[in-house]
Structure formats: structure tokens, C-alpha cells
Amino acid sequence: MEIINCRQIKTEILESIKQEVLSLPFDPVFCDILVGSDSVSRKYVDIKAKTAESVGIKFKAVEFRESITTEEIIDEIERLNKVPYMCGIIVQLPLPSHIDRQTVLDAISPALDVDCLGKASNEIFYQSSHSENFLGYPTALACVRILDSLQLDLTNKNIVVLGQGTLVGRPVSHLLEVRGYTVIRVDKNTENITEILQSADVIISGIGRAKFISKDMIKEGVVIIDAGTSEEDGAIVGDLDIESVEEKASFVTSSPGGVGPVTVALLLENVLRVAKRRVANNLLQVSKTGEINA
After folding, report:
1. Cα(138)–Cα(144) distance, rounded to whole angstroms?
2. Is residue 261 a contact partner of residue 227, using CB atoms and an 8 Å limit?
3. Is the pTM here over 0.90, yes or no?
4. CB–CB of 52/269 below 8 Å?
5. Does residue 224 have a pLDDT over 70?
6. Angle of CA points 171, 18, 116, to nearest 5°
7. Count of beta carbons in the 10 Å neighbourhood of residue 59
8. Which of 258-284 are b and which e, b meaning 16 or more Cβ less than 10 Å from the residue's Cβ?
9. Within 10 Å of residue 81's Cβ, how many Cβ atoms?
């Protein structure tokens, strides 16, 4: 069994982004909105900030008190939508329980919704032809990019997507089906899950059940991409019991340290896509002073 080097995939993506950002006629801005003071959420914001700045994308952290109202957040997002050079806005989840989550996410302009969580962005994703310039769910894109890195011939292979959640399972299934691959969708209502997994040549999992996939549930040579996270004995673990499957699986991702880093890189690739789209659509104008205005 080989553990896929996702950190190397991340490094290659970020290096490509850095080179393309250097060629832009302006410095793109990426904004992460944090409500409250949750330490885990703040850690994720810090990771995105450091990574964005490493590739030349200006990072803007916007922090709000936990008592802020839905209406106040929406007002701020509408202002951020108009900030010059803005090329991506996300809201750090989860939000406090009194906030209307979907209404807040829908306030982000679809053109800047690099997490793809607004209703309009969701509709565009499932209706688009998935050209180079489309925006997609970063975790789903990461799973597909990792699978692509193996350069496998997946023609007539069984790909099982375990879980059909908004962020991973459903969009991953869609991305693979658009390519013409055979995808078996598994959710909580699916019967004979073990039998289905045992038939899989590739398993992509995002159910968030600690070490759910064991050696008895897979066949020899299977590829497993683990996008699930949960906590066990105070540690973050994935859906896959890596030690259990090491004698049967061919390639697997680790968790943590697997899909996550690639997800952050592809979130920033979405930001780059927005920036390139703005240039292509002539949405930047040079003022009389020579400065570029968005």
C-alpha cells in the first residue's frame, strides 16, 4: 500500500498559482469572514491566510462579534462584494446558531463564491460544463485532483462514493459522472453497503465516521481517497482505518494531512480563476494615474 503524497500535490498546485498570480495586472484579494472566537475556526483562517499570502494573494480577515445579527453580516458582505480587486469571499463555518446560515452564504456574489456554498453557485456548478474557469466545491475538486494524480485508467471501473453530502459526496459524484465514469452513490439509506464497497475499484469517502472502512469491506488493490474527518480519543481521524487496510489497498490518502491541504490549494485556485475571469472580461480599468481599478 502506498500513501498518496498529497502535500506534494498541494505544493505543485500552489507553485502554479504563484506563477499565474505574478502574471496578473493586479493583486487579487481573498476574504475569510469569521464570526465569534472559536479557536479551531481561527486556526483554519490562519492556515488560509498564510497559504494565500505565500502565493501572492492578498488575504483579508474580517472578524465579527458572536452577537452580530444575520442582517448585519449581510450588510457587510454586500460591502465586501464591491471591494476593489476582490476575487473570493468565504464564511468560516460553523456560524452561531442564531445566524441564518444559508441567507448569509447567499449574500456572497456568485462571481466571488469560491466555496460554492450559495444557492446560485450550487445551481451553476451542477449545470455547468466544467470548463477551466468554473468554480467548484474545493474538497470535491481536491478528491478528483488526487485521483487524477495517480493517472489510472478508470474506464469500466467501479467508483463508489460513500456519503452524498453537500461538500464532498454529491459534487464528487457529479464531477466523475460528467467524465463518463461509472459512479455508485452510497448514502445512509443504501442497503448492502459492505457488498457495494467490496466491489469498488475506487472508494471516495466523506461520511465523517471514524475508521469506518476496514479490510473486510474492500477488495485487493482498491484506491481509497478519505475526505472524512471526525474525532476519536481527542485526535482527528478519517473514515479509513489505514492500519487495517494496508495489506489490501493499493493507494490511500492519510487523514489528517491528505485531502485537507489539497482542498486549501484548490480554494485558492478558485480565487485565481475569478481573477483571470475579471481580466478576460475586461472588468479592470486603468485610471489616469495608471492605477488599476476594479
Report:
1. 10
2. no
3. yes
4. no
5. yes
6. 25
7. 20
8. bbbbbbbbbbbbbbbbbbbebeeeeeb
9. 15
